[in-house]
Amino acid sequence: MAQCVVLNADGTLTPTGQTVGECTGYVLVSGSEYGVYQVVQDAFSAPTSDQALGWFFGAWGLVMVMYLAARCVGAVVSMFDDK
Questions:
Q1: Domain that holds residue 80
Q2: Same domain membership, residue 23 and residue 54
Q3: Which secondary-structure segment (H or E) carries 25?
Q4: 60 and 80, same domain (yes or no)
Q5: For the whole model, what pTM was predicted?
Q6: Three-state secondary-structure class, residue 14
Q7: Number of structural domains, the chain?
Q8: Sequence-distant (≥ 6) Cβ neighbours of residue 78 within 8 angstroms
C-alpha cells in the first residue's frame, strides 16, 4: 500500500500520515504497485517509428495476401464456370 513520507536531513524517511492524494513529500510504493504503474505507462506510450512501420506494413501485407489469394481462387473457380 502506498504511503506518504518525507526525507529527513539525515537521509531517513518519516511517514507523514497524509493521504497519497494530498502528499507534499514523496510517495513510497511497493514493488507490485510499481509494476502495475509501469505496465499502464508502457501500454499507453506512443509507439516507436519502427513499431508503427511494422504495424502499417503488417496490415498492408495481410490485405495484399488476402487479395492475391482471392484472385487466385477466383481464377480457378472461373475455369469451372459453364458459360
A1: 47-83
A2: no
A3: none
A4: yes
A5: 0.47
A6: strand
A7: 2
A8: none
